[in-house]
Amino acid sequence: MTESGPYALPHLTEIFDALRRGRHLCAADGDLYRALRENLDAYMDLFRHLGFRLQVHQRDFFYFRGKDSLSPLASRMAVFVFILIEYLSDQGEPVVDALMTRTFSIPDLPHLKSARYRTYLKEAGASSEDDLRMITRQLERFGFVQRHSEDTFNFRTPAYRFFDVCIEILNRDEAPPTQEQEP
Prior knowledge:
mainly alpha, three-stranded antiparallel sheet, 8 helices, elongated
């Protein structure tokens, strides 16, 4: 469907609705992704005039740039992903490869299997497998995962936003402290 009027952009209504609800659009989103990719400058210009900043991630997905502070929902999703990243790293697995190629099952996740991870989850407002299912539904709503059943899911390209944050935190934590020179 092509919109009419001064901004006759394909799938404008669906794209705008998805992005303003926080969805991340990637190649797996088919026509919406292609319409956005093929008309990128026009979409960016329109959204800028409407007060939105369309971001193009280096991994080729799109989202609206929001506030820099995390909402409780975003924090819960981040903790969920960070636990999985830490667990895979501790197992000596290639984290990004494992996250982007595997199908995960809620009952098999490490999130509730260690006291440390349970504490992280509790601080984020989650404490049960049902809470983990709710988080994966939220991750799906925002375009980070594709759920195959109530208990199974895999990550989609937009999950790289979480990886970027992890790398940024690691780099910040590993950076040598700056020393002030004495006069």
